Amino acid sequence: MKSDFELNPLDRRILEQLQADASISHAELAERVGSTAPSCWRRIKAMEQAGVLTRTVRLADPEKLGYPVTILCSVRLRNYDRDTVQAFEGFVQEQRRVMACFTISGDWDYLLQVIAADVSDYESFLMRTLLTHSSVGGASSHFALSVVKHTTSVPC
Fold first, then answer.
1. Does domain 9-49 have CATH number 1.10.10.10?
2. 112-147 per-position pLDDT tens digit
3. Which CATH number fits domain 63-143: 3.40.50.1970, 3.20.20.10, 3.40.50.11260, 3.30.70.920?
4. What is the pTM of this model?
5. From residue 42, how far is each of 11, 26, 50, 140 by CA, in Å?
């Protein structure tokens, strides 16, 4: 889906800086991108209105909050009627330890990124929560051994 909003070189520099550190002031941003604070503010507002920039958040380290284990869990639904799909997707939205959920092609229907305190904690989530949901037909889990790359920054 292509946006009607055209990014100019200044917009791209602003986006690069904000994706690296959204807590900087407009004055600091302006200095980094070679512009003025009011111009940066106007460009940010325009990108927000166009949907290029969405919400501003601070990223938390899951390991420091007691969730050092990351699991990629493939899920297969029992069937594919609208109610089942909506039930599963609503269920996933409610699960705070599910960090991401993707519909995927291939042998599985969804891929979940799940965080856990340890293997036992994940087993409890899997056996008592995920697999007991009426929409779920099966799951396959893969434990991340290390993180080679993780970014939230989109190329501009």
1. yes
2. 999 999 999 999 999 999 999 999 999 999 999 999
3. 3.30.70.920
4. 0.86
5. 10, 10, 12, 47
